[in-house]
Every structure is written in structure tokens, then in C-alpha cells.
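Thread amino acids onto this structure.
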């Protein structure tokens, strides 16, 4: 089988990392795997040599022609007037270029059996491309559909397409948006993100975290949705009332960082909380932690939880919307907590004090690459 995974960029990010993992999963399964990306700025990920890597610089090709350059400028001007309308023009202008580049690629390698596009940022750029081989992977539960422009977006990007959510929660959201927007998709399925346990465990040994004592870790973008403020409140409560002494390490960056820095000072936690910023490889910190926390209000999937389990690190999560419930199943359900500061603090301390051994292999098995590749083939190649 010949498959192409398409993603907007290969910068640091969960979606980008998953796109690489998925392309490698198909290659490891014996398929001819290609990874196509559009934006080269900030690129940090490169798939292994068994994956064919292609850079389709759609914007650059568009700007090479006078008409294309003028249309691009015109589209940006209109977007300044009608906010969030740029997808309309980008889809119409960039789709023909993508189609041409893909045709040239297929002349060299042969026709693709499956084309998997990852995330709204990717397929909104080329929404006018219609092909039964395409599966659009929806990564988030945050899908706007209230305004007339939002509904037009849904009609352009979703109508008649094969859609797949990365979790049952995302699928539920897709179906809700389709119904309220009165748009019909060709299909809506669930295909989880693949987890390369061997690679994660290898990366977890690349360096030694500079922490001499046990610690708790949180890994992810520092945004309001990640709810780090809640984590800090709960951590403060655990220190004051539950005799917690372990330091807290925050890995990540984002537009809410200044608020978090301020909150740390207000709670008098500056000597107990370490801010590491964005790390290309956070796995040594995850593996070295006694506990990984997830306090998001919503998660498309919650990949960091599965990665922590792959590192044999215990986890705790809030009962957020989206995909967390697909990960925290069976006896892991006990470690999903309501958005209650005291309850979360108590559960953190309980996990840290427990002596029971977790069955990490069982928890990660449903997300192994071979299982995910099999699911794609069952859904889209029958």
C-alpha cells in the first residue's frame, strides 16, 4: 500500500509529532509511506529514512506568478475586513497547486491508496481538494460553528469528506457541529493517535534531568485551556494541608505564561515550581517524574498521558471534554478527577503514596502503531 500523510508544518507540537509517528507506523508495517508538509519555518521533526519526505511550499509557488502574488495580497486584505475568511481564498488559490504537486509526485512513485491530512490548519488550506482517498483527521474539540462565516467554513471543509476524530469525544463534537450546521460528511470515524513506545523510551534516555529529588511534572502548552492555574491551586493546597513536599516542574510555553508566573509568585510557590519552557525532547523529564498531571479543560486526545504511560510514569487527569476518557479506561478511571482543587490534590497525594504496580503495557496497547495502521486499513481500504 502507498500512503501519504499531509501536515501543515513540522514544528514542535503534538499534532506534528503524531504526523511523523503515523508516517513511520505505515513504513514499519511494510507500506510505502510519504510525509508531505507545507511550512518549513521552525521545523524540528524529521521522520526516519524509511519515510519519503516532501516539502510542498505552496505559498512560495503561488507568489512566483504575478497573478498569484496579487491574488494572495488581495486575499489578505479581504481577510482584514472579514476576519477569519482567509480559508476561502487559500483553499481556492492553493488547492490547484497542491493538486499539481501531488500529481507530479504520483507520476514518480505511483498512485496513493490513502491520503491522511492532519488537523484543521492543514486541510483548511486546501479544502477545495476533493478525493475519495482523503481522510481528514480532526484533532480538537474546539470547532467554531456559530456565525454565518463559521458555518460556511464547516460547509467548505467538512461537506462530503471522510472525517475521523482522534477520540470518541472529538467524533461526538464533529457530529454535533455537522448537525447544527446542516452539513453532511461522507463518513465520520474514530482513529486514535499512534504511540511509538520504543522511540519514546529511547528518547527518554537521551539526557538526565537536572533534578536531584522526586518531582511532579506537567507537559504542554501554557494556555488557559491547559488550566495550569487550577494545577497550581491544587498543588498549593496539597503542600499546605496534605504534607506534599515534591517540587512541581512545568514543561512548555504559551501566551498564558506571564499569568502563570504571576500566580506562582502570588501563591508563594517560586521556590517549589520550576519552569523549563519548551523542550524538543521532554521524555527524560516525563520518565523521571513520580507523577504526570493533566488539568486541561478539553483535549482532542491527550497524547501526553499515553506518552507518560509509555515512560512508566503514573498519571492523573481532570474529567475534561474530549479524548481523555478514551485513555483513562478500566482501572485508570479512578485517576480522573472532577475540577475540584481539594479532590485533585488528594488524588495526587494518594497516587504518590500508593505501592501498587501499574500495568503500563496494557494501558498503552490500544495505541500501538500496528493497531492504528490496521484501523485505517479496515475503515478506508475495504
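Threaded sequence (382 positions):
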Amino acid at each position: 500500500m502507498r500512503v501519504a500523510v499531509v501536515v501543515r508544518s513540522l514544528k514542535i507540537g503534538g499534532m506534528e509529532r503524531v504526523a511523523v509517528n503515523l508516517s513511520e507506523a505505515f513504513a514499519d508495517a511494510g507500506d510505502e509511506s510519504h510525509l508531505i508538509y507545507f511550512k518549513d519555518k521552525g521545523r524540528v521533526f524529521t521522520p526516519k529514512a524509511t519515510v519519503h519526505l516532501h516539502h510542498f511550499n505552496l505559498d512560495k509557488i503561488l507568489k512566483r506568478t504575478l497573478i498569484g502574488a496579487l491574488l494572495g495580497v488581495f486575499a489578505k486584505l479581504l481577510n482584514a475586513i472579514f476576519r477569519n475568511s482567509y480559508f476561502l481564498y487559500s483553499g481556492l488559490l492553493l488547492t490547484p497547486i497542491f493538486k499539481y504537486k501531488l500529481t507530479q509526485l504520483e507520476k514518480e512513485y505511483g498512485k496513493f491508496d490513502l491520503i491522511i491530512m492532519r488537523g484543521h490548519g492543514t486541510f483548511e488550506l486546501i479544502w477545495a481538494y476533493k478525493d475519495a482517498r482523503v481522510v481528514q483527521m480532526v484533532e480538537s474539540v474546539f470547532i467554531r460553528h456559530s456565525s454565518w462565516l463559521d458555518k460556511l467554513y464547516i460547509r467548505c471543509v467538512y461537506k462530503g469528506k471522510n472525517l475521523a476524530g482522534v477520540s470518541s469525544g472529538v467524533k461526538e463534537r464533529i457530529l454535533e457541529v455537522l448537525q447544527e450546521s446542516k452539513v453532511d460528511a461522507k463518513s465520520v470515524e474514530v482513529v486514535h493517535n499512534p504511540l511509538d513506545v520504543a522511540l519514546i523510551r529511547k528518547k527518554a534516555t537521551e539526557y538526565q534531568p537536572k533534578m536531584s529529588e522526586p518531582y511532579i511534572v506537567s507537559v504542554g502548552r501554557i494556555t488557559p485551556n491547559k488550566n495550569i492555574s487550577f494545577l497550581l491551586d491544587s498543588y498549593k493546597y496539597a503542600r499546605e494541608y496534605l504534607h506534599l513536599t515534591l517540587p512541581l516542574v512545568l514543561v512548555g510555553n504559551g501566551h498564558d505564561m506571564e499569568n502563570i508566573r504571576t500566580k506562582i509568585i502570588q501563591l508563594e510557590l517560586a521556590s517549589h515550581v520550576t519552569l523549563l519552557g519548551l523542550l524538543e525532547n521532554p521524555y527524560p523529564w516525563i520518565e523521571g517524574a513520580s507523577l504526570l498531571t493533566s488539568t486541561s479543560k478539553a483535549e482532542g486526545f491527550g497524547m501526553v498521558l499515553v506518552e507518560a504511560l509509555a515512560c512508566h510514569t503514573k498519571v492523573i487527569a481532570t474529567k475534561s471534554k474530549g479524548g481523555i476518557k478514551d485513555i483513562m479506561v478500566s482501572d485508570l478511571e479512578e485517576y480522573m478527577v472532577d475540577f475540584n482543587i481539594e479532590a485533585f490534590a488528594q488524588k495526587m497525594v494518594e497516587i504518590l503514596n500508593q505501592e501498587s504496580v501499574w500495568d503500563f503495557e496494557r494501558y498503552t496497547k490500544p495505541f500501538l502503531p500496528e493497531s492504528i495502521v490496521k484501523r485505517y486499513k479496515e475503515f478506508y481500504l475495504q
